[in-house]
Design brief:
Helix content is about 35%, strand content about 15%. By secondary structure, the protein is of the alpha/beta class. The longest helix is centred in the middle third of the chain and has 16 residues.
């Protein structure tokens, strides 16, 4: 990507982040290597394809602990754009993020890319207004590897936690807050 003339290439990384893990962080590092200059991490407020997600507030706090790079911003925009009982959709989030970026950089000062792990390719066509979304913001698909929030949650349930997949701060937070059925002292 051409980064001259102070053009910003902003990656939008939506997800449930339940919990955020080193695979998510690695995805951001790869995006930076591909020319992205800034990343906005957007935890889903009310995920349309998942039920029983950990509270938005817990996931926001864990995201802030996981993403330490100063070029990564954690956004609560989805909480601002919907009512508590409504589902949030990537198309609506992308439109709102682009509106905010337009105010920050001017309408011609940025390009956006939607960052997705390759694990989402099977469900991406189910997303609301998928074709419009892909016309609005090109995809950057990044191989995520074996790390999965689902496997991590199941690991906590079965006392088989893949500790190396989480930052120490997030692991400590999960234990202190008894998330994912962690047993207390």
């Amino acid at each position: 990507m051409d980064t001259k003339n102070n053009m910003q290439f902003v990656g939008i990384l939506p997800g449930s982040f339940d919990p955020p893990h080193k695979g998510h962080v690695s995805l951001c590092e790869i995006a930076f290597d591909r020319g992205i200059t800034e990343i906005i991490v957007v935890p889903a407020y009310n995920h349309p394809l998942k039920d029983n997600v950990t509270s938005f507030e817990h996931r926001m706090k864990m995201c802030r602990m996981s993403f330490k790079d100063k070029r990564i911003y954690i956004s609560d925009i989805e909480k601002k754009i919907v009512k508590p009982e409504e589902k949030t959709y990537t198309i609506d989030t992308v439109i709102e993020v682009r509106n905010e970026l337009s105010q920050k950089y001017g309408p011609e000062g940025f390009h956006t890319r939607l960052l997705v792990g390759d694990d989402l390719l099977t469900e991406i066509r189910e997303w609301k207004s998928a074709q419009i979304l892909f016309e609005l913001v090109p995809l950057i698909v990044i191989k995520r590897g074996e790390i999965s929030s689902t496997i991590i949650r199941h690991g906590f349930l079965n006392d088989n936690v893949p500790f190396g997949w989480l930052s120490w701060d997030v692991l400590k937070y999960i234990i202190e807050n008894k998330l994912y059925n962690v047993k207390g002292d």
